[in-house]
Each structure stands twice: as C-alpha cells, then as structure tokens.
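Mods, move this if it's the wrong board.
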Amino acid sequence: MWSIIGIVFAVITISFSMIYKLNIGLSLILGSIVLGLFSLSLPDLLQTIFDASVSLSTFEMVLSIVAITFLNFMYQNTGKAQDLAENLGKMIPSKILVAIIPAIFGVLPVTGGALFSAPLVDSEGDKIGIEKERKAFLNMWFRHIPHLLYPLETALVIASHLTGVSLFTIIIYQIPVLVVGLSFGYLFGLRGIKEKGAFVIEWRYLQRFLLSFLPILVTVILTLVLNLKIFISVFIGSILLFFMTRSKKFAVASSLKTMSNMALIGFGVMIFRQISQDSGVWDVVMSLVQANSLWPPILLVFLPMLIGFALGESSPSITLSLSMLLPMYKFNPPEVCLVYTCMYFGHLISPLHLCFSVTSEYFKTRTLQVYKRFIPATIATLIVDIPLMIMLSKYVQ
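Not the wrong board. Structure tokens:
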C-alpha cells in the first residue's frame, strides 16, 4: 500500500515542480525519487536509478530525442522549416495549417516526435497571432488525436492482438471518437481565430513542399518500412538535409543547451518508469482488480486512464490495462475502444508523456497554462465518448 501512496505523491511532486518551472527532466527525476523512497530501500533505489540511466533503451531514447532536436535546429537554421510552412501556406489557410502540420508529422509515431512539427506550428501561429500556450495545445492535440484510429499506432495493434478484435473493426468504432476529438480540438484551439489565406493547390508549391519535406519523409520510410532505429533514421535524414542545403549556419551554443534539456527529459522518463515497475505499485493495483474490489466502470474507464497518466506512454499502458482486465472480461469491440480511448487520453495529458514534455520545453510554456486548454478539451471529449461506447457495448456482442 505504501507504493500506492508513493505514486500519488510522485505525481503531485512532478505536477507542482513543472507548474513552478523546474526543469521538466529534473521534475521527473524528483518524482521518481519520491516514489522510490515510499517503496524501495535506499540501496535498491540507487541501484534502480543507475540501471535505468545506463540501460540500452534509455540510451536509444535519449539519442532519438537529441537526434530529432538536432534535425529541428538544422531545419530552422537552413531555412527549410520556413520553406515547408511557406509552401503549405500558399495552398492552405494558416488557421487550418496549424492543425494539419502536427497531423502530417504524426505519421511518424515515435516518442518525442512532436518536436518535428513544433517549429512550423510556432512560425505559422505567429502569422495569426496565436499565443505560445495555444500553439503547444494545437501541436499536441492534432498530432495525437488521429492516432485514435491510426493503423500504425503500436498501442492500437496491441489492443487488437490482446483482445482478438480485428484492427479494422476497432478503427471503424473509433471513427466517432476521432470526430469528437477533432471537434473539441477546433473548439478549444481554433475557434475565434481569423482565417488567413485560402485553399489553392498549385503544383509548384506542392513540389517545393515535398522537396523540403524529403529529409523527414526519408526518416519516416526508414523507420516504418525498413524498421531502422529512429535515431539512425533521423541521422540519415540530417545528412540528406545537409547535402541539400550545405548551410554553415548553426547556433551551436543554443542547440547544445536545448539538446541537453531534451536529453534530461529522456533520462527522467526512463528513471520514473523503472522505479514504478520495481516499486510493485502495479502489482498492488492488479491484486485489487483480480479480487474484484473495484467497481466495473472504474475498471473499464478509470483504471486505463490512471495507468496511461502514470506511465505516459501508450503501448505499455494498453498492455498493462488489458492484461489486468482480460481475466475478468470478454471484450466486445466498443469495450476495447472504451479502454483504449480512456488509456490514450490519460497518457496524452500526462506530464510523463514525452511529447507533452518536449512540446512544453520547446514553447517555453507553463504546464498549468497548457492544461487550461488540455484538460477541458479532454474532459469534454470523454464526456461524449464514454457514454457512446458504453451504450454501443450493450448492443454488440
């Protein structure tokens, strides 16, 4: 039970640390220590921190984050980021563009991938006078909402395999969930903004956009088709961008500082996840679930949401949620969608969600200010989606 108390205090510690502008990576490490002090001996806590810091998965995550940050700096310093935005802006109104850009870059479903779209959302948002907190919301929301039914979303594939419900069936049932999410994204992120520009598709602008987008497209193909590690794919994309531009302009000092901050976030996330696993907190939760000590709606709605929020990553969250619930339920498609949706929104708003952390770091926003849009949009979406899925589950076997 101490581990349950520890996870509560850890989340509170992380949230308040971020609200009061402590470095995001340091906030995560501080929360990890709080959880560890409640659930592990001091030698075990130190050993866990060491193991998480030197693990291969941590190394790969940090390399990926640093590589993506470096590629972003290259795009900005070579002017290619401006070319992307300008050529899209010639064809699409800026008001719509700030939502489309994150969705386009969302085809690369990798940890921390929101860094790709942040610079373009930033520049386009400036054109229509969007404040930085709204930019952060738009970058996060419209990157991730399409993943509610994106076939390459790993968590969705896991949900299909674990429950035996076909991926196509899940996607069909997730269509109304997506529509609701996009609608509230518009209401909380785009309503009241005046349009600038019009829809005019011209080949010359499309060609220029595709050329500027080529290094990122190569990165996507290498990652999704050839299954290369993301940091290797991004490195190759960076080399391609260098030979395309041959620019010598690069702000080394500022880029090193930013990459260091991003790397610290990666370490913080991995340390917290390792300590939460070693603490036994999820064993306690599982024992409560298997003892049927929790009310069914809590199991199907709040349990996956809590796990998603606590872990901050979709794939392990859906795996853990369904592993706990499958012994007690024979899931029909709407129930699978209910669990997946609740998990996904829990992970979406989590301060441990790396995309949330790196987006906040990029735009230099206060977490509380971003939450003023994030939380109402999430609650409104779930208020519509949860009853819809529960209602459908009564009519589908």
